[in-house]
Amino acid sequence: MPTRRPNVLFICADQWRADCISALGHPNVKTPNLDALAADGVLFRNHFGQCTPCGPSRTSVLTGLYLMNHRSGRNGTPLDARHTNLALEARKAGYEPTLFGYTDTSIDPRGKDPNDPALTGYDKGVMPGFVTPLHLPDDMAPWVADLAAKGYDVRNGRDDAFKPKTPFDKPEDRGFRFIPTVFPAAHSETAFLTDAFLKWLSVRSDKPWFAHFVFYRPHPPLIAPEPYNRAVHPKDVVFPQRTATVEEEKRQHPLLAYELDRISQPGRYDEHSPLDPVAADDLEIRQMRAAYYGLVAEVDHHLGRIIEHLKATGEYERTLIIVTSDHAEMLGEHYVWGKEIYFDQAFRLPLVIRDPRPDADATRGTRVEAFTEAVDIMPTILDWVGLKAPRSCDGRSLVPFLRGEAPEDWRDAVFFEHDFRNVKTQAAETALGISSDECSYAVIRDGRYKYVHFAALPPLLFDMVEDPHETRNLADRPEMAATVLHYAQRMLSWRLSHAERTLTNMQLTKDGVFSRP
User: Fold this and answer.
1) Peptide bond into 227 cis (omega under 30)
2) Residues forming the active site
3) 63: buried, middle or exposed (CB in 10 Å: 19+, 13-18, 0-12)?
4) Which among 106, 171, 175, 456 could disulfide-bond with 284, CB atoms 3.0 to 4.6 Å apart, if both were Cys?
5) Cα distance between residue 414 and residue 380, in whole Å
6) Is 89 exposed, middle or buried (0-12, 13-18, 19+ CB in 10 A)?
């Protein structure tokens, strides 16, 4: 009989910071299950996302394309239907890619009727090629319906689901975000999604499967169910890195000043919170971070349930497991919350890959220091299942690293981008005095320097060795002019060599189509 195809499990946890892994020595986070997976696989220490926020970052992950090529730059910016993706490609190997969660794909409206409900939100679409036993978009309707069936008053949908529990006796040494959800951990959206996935897995022990499982957490709102609201005491939380005052922080760059103003409105970043996260006092800042760490612990618990099931059913030894995030979270660093700013904390992601095959045994428990990018996920999975990555793909397979065979020509820097336009409200455009098409920046970051190039705003240059927290902009210093020029030229070379290239290595000749691999 032919050898059964292996399984693929691609897990993405929304807004998980790279440093929030206890195996890396984080003083507050506890992730025993991800730690164990890393000890049985490979942990990538310098993994970066391609863009923010959710929709654009997931588009880069699932298409293998840089933002400058897929151009779905904001939540709600349509993704051109011409692009292939991980799910469509995996079907060529006989898989039926299955989604639990969401992809935040904004579909191409061309050819759709204006009344099509798929055009009424950035989260309505699913990346083509996936089947969806449980689609959990922003309104989380299936989970909210489950809460209603359990007797919770959620007549206003998700808005009610994430309201803080009342009445609740909050101790004086805890902040507002110590107040838990109205439901316990067993009824959370994380538990609900995991339960559904385990049911789906329970009848698939005799056939290969391909699953993309998406945790919503630790994405805000920063409210954790009991007992995870108590996982970390705020007095033990390390305070975020920032300058003495918000005004001093704002002087670093106009975009940073704009972002701090944007998120200072209570509820803008953290729904149902009465706090201005920028001006909140020390206790509230520590409590918000503690709540985030509690949500990470909850995700890790359910990750453990999935892995335990795979081991109990024998599927663990024939399943490629990838755990990562779409983008990260500032957690108050530089006074910023969220992910829409150029600092490493918003773009640096966790990545753990466990290859069950014997040729990966020698690398189990190792850590890779080389720079890797979110666009590498798609070619890695395709390579692992025996498929070639499309010519259009900007990433490279990480499979050699899983076998201890680091390529000699591997990248020595990462590149990421951000489109911060607001087409409808023109908020950023008005505040910064630039056009929508000028609301973008691109970053090149290597082991020494990080250069941020804006389309219409001043550039930034950070020395990542001497100034790892990115507090001193060196771009306007005369003695750094040659360094700025060097990185600007590298940025231009990168963009030239990675521009759309689907057909660029083809030529029509008298003998027909010539194509160079």
Assistant:
1) yes
2) 54
3) buried
4) 175
5) 17
6) buried
Mean confidence (pLDDT) of the chain: 97
- Provide the angle, in degrees to the nearest 10, between the axes of the packed helices 32-39 and 282-312: 50
SS (H, E, C) 170-227: CCCCCCHHHCCECCCHHHCHHHHHHHHHHHHHCCCCCCCCEEEEEECCCCCCCCCCCC
Residue 56 near residue 73 (C-beta atoms within 8 A): yes
| Beta carbons within 8 Å of 438's beta carbon, 6+ residues apart | 455, 456
Three-class DSSP category at 99: strand
Separation between Cα atoms, residue 462 and residue 471, nearest integer Å: 8
Joined together, the tokens standing for residue 354 give 């466990």
What is the percent of the chain where pLDDT is above 90? 96
User: Across residues 77-101, what is the average pLDDT?
Assistant: 97
What span, in angstroms and rounded, lies between the C-alpha atoms of 368 and 224?
32
Answer yes or no: are the C-beta atoms of 75 and 117 closer than 8 Å.
no
Residues 52 and 347 sit within 8 Å (Cβ to Cβ): yes
State if pTM tops 0.90: yes
Domains of the chain: 7-515 (3.40.720.10)
pLDDT band with cut points at 50, 70 and 90 for residue 2: very low
For the record, the structure tokens of 202 come out as 């329970």
Residue 205 confidence (pLDDT) above 90: no
